[in-house]
From TrEMBL:
Signal peptide positions (record): 1-19
The protein's name in its UniProt record: Regulator of G-protein signaling 16
UniProt keyword terms in alphabetical order: GTPase activation, Lipoprotein, Membrane, Palmitate, Phosphoprotein, Signal, Signal transduction inhibitor
InterPro entries, A to Z: RGS, RGS_sf, RGS_subdom1/3, RGS_subdomain_2
Species assigned in the record: Stercorarius parasiticus
Cell compartments where the protein resides: Membrane
Task performed by this protein: Regulates G protein-coupled receptor signaling cascades. Inhibits signal transduction by increasing the GTPase activity of G protein alpha subunits, thereby driving them into their inactive GDP-bound form. Plays an important role in the phototransduction cascade by regulating the lifetime and effective concentration of activated transducin alpha. May regulate extra and intracellular mitogenic signals.
Transmembrane residue ranges: none
GO molecular function: GTPase activator activity
Domain of life: Eukaryota
């Protein structure tokens, strides 16, 4: 319900927004639009849809602040649904998105309760990402590959733990730093930082 009496919270909010520079509002819109486009890219397929099943980044935050949090740690990035999607888009430019897809598949796999589905999913993930010359083979050592292969004989929710951990470490130490230095992320952080400074100066 609208209220235009003096001291009304709705009126104060509108005045606060009106006081913000147009450039800040435009930057905030641009950041929101970029995240929206990333979250709805059809070519990302079911794999990024998997991240929504994991309810990554379920805590509602201002999109500009969320963008800045991605640089705090790799964990912060993985906790954010839009962060995972942005990182996946970056990995596609390096032709290494299979690492994140494998990590997401493992997270989804851990939530499987049916033993029958667990076995079939385990084989499917192994054939797609882990076995030698797999269509989307991840970069893990031979020993880890063999350990994972043996784990399939009695598939449990933990059978990919070692391979998933190796892949996560690779992304954290290799791809993640490059993502933070990428032109697209730097552009998003500049806009988010600029908007945050403008907002603070008008509060």
């Amino acid at each position: 319900m609208s209220c235009w009496a003096p001291g009304c919270p709705a009126l104060s909010m509108c005045r606060g927004l009106a006081a913000l520079p147009v450039t800040c509002l435009e930057r905030a819109k641009d950041v929101k639009t970029r995240l929206g486009i990333l979250l709805h890219k059809p070519e990302l397929g079911y794999r990024i849809g998997t991240s929504s099943k994991l309810q990554l980044g379920s805590r509602r935050r201002d999109s500009s602040q969320e963008v800045l949090e991605w640089r705090e740690s790799f964990d912060q990035l993985l906790k954010s649904k839009s962060g995972v999607t942005a990182f996946h888009t970056f990995l596609k430019t390096e032709f290494s998105e299979e690492n994140l897809d494998f990590w997401l598949a493992c997270e989804d796999f851990k939530k499987t309760r049916s033993k029958t589905k667990l076995a079939s999913k385990a084989n499917r993930i192994f054939e797609e990402f882990v076995q030698s010359e797999a269509p989307r083979e991840v970069n893990i050592d031979h020993e880890t590959r063999e350990i994972t292969r043996k784990n399939l004989s009695g598939a449990t929710s933990a059978c990919f733990n070692e391979a998933q951990a190796k892949t996560r470490t690779l992304m954290e130490k290799d791809s993640y730093p490059r993502f933070l230095k990428s032109a697209s992320y730097q552009d998003m952080t500049r806009q988010a930082t600029s908007c945050g400074i403008s907002k603070r100066s008008h509060t």
